[in-house]
Structures are given as C-alpha cells and as structure tokens.
Specification:
7-stranded mixed beta sheet, 39% helix
Length: 245
Amino acid sequence: AKSAIVRKPLGSLERLRTPSSACELSRAARRNSPTSSCSSSTNSVIRKTLRMLCVAKRTVQAARMSPCHISRRGVWYNPWEGWLNLIWNSYDAKRVEQVGIDKVATEWVLRNGGSVLIDDGVAKPYWSSNYNSIPERVHVLGIDGKGNDLTNEGLRHVRDLKHLRTLILASSKLIGDEGMKHITAVKQLEELDLSRTSLGLPGLQMLQTLPHLKRLTIVDTPAVASKSYSYDAIKAALPNTDIDD
C-alpha cells in the first residue's frame, strides 16, 4: 500500500526564508544589502528635507504664520524665518571654488526671491528670476533684492563680483551697517538703493569710499532720521553722486 505523503505546512519563518519566485528573491537580496538600503534611505531623507525647507520658506514668506514680535530695530522677527534666512544666506566657499563667485551669487539672490542682471556672453544682458535656468557662464551686472530676505551675512556674496554695477536692496530690513563692509569692497559700483533698510549713520559714512557711485538712495533709513545726519557732508564726500534722501 502506498503510504500517504503528509505535507507539513511551512511556518511563517520558513516561508520568509524560501521565496517562491524570482521577484521575491530579488526583493530579499535588496533588503539584505546594507549598502543599497543605506544609500536609498539617505537619498530619501535628503529629498524630503529639501522639499520641507522649500515649503517652509515659501510658507513663512507668504503667510507669516508663526508667532512674531517686533525687535528693538523695529523689524518683524520670526524664529522660523530667522533660521531659514541663516540657511538661505550662508556662504559656501567650497562651491565658490567649484563654479565661481558669479554663479554662487546668482543662486543666492534667486533662492531668496530676487532677480539678477546676467551677462552670459551669448545674448544681451537680461534680468532673470528663474533659479532653474542659470547659465553655465555668468557675469552678474546687477542685483535686485527689493523686499527680499537678504542679510548682512549674505552680502558676503557681492564683495568679489567684478562686474557688478547695480545693487538694489530697498525694503530689505535685514540689511544694516554690518553689511556695508561687503558693499564697499565693490569699488566699481555705480547705483545703490538702500531705501527703507536698517542703514545707520556709521554705515552711510562707510559708503563714502565708493569712488564710482553715481546714484545713492537712502530714503526712510535710520541714517537720515539721525540728528547727526548732514546731506551737505555726504554730498561733499560724494560730489559726483546723485543722492536721494
């Protein structure tokens, strides 16, 4: 008599160890590979972090949803916004060595919502605010950061721009006297707009070292409101400059 063959059902552990198809074998191999698992998880975390930063930056700029208070300078201060501004205005010396200061400065302005006057050596100079269309070869002729979150620390990007002629920082409340040390390094600068910034009298006095400045706008700044401010003294130091106060 033929003996009956009894098939013992596989336990859950045995089923995991004996995949029934090539697909399961492939998946098991990927799961057991520490390198691929680590690499994929790291890339996923980086992508998620970048997306979160972009969304957070836009949310803070557009809605101002976090609790705020007014600082001693009269500037709206937001803890989340301050942290994001620190990241968005950081100076990356290693990247400057790789791609050049003009391209890094362009990236800095555009990611903060400004626009840049670009000379790419192909077309006529043009204003651009598109971060995804920065050309490989770029010379920065002008920067328009009006109303954006550019900071004194971020102005480190402009001091080595050899072709910069126009710098518009109107209504950028985070710009003050400390940032003037970077601006005064741009000796070829011709037009500078610091209206409605936190520029004080010490910073204004530093600007007297710009020899080619043709137009200076300082409307509604603490410097002009200072009792020690004298238009005649500034005009005497910058005789060839059209000063709008």
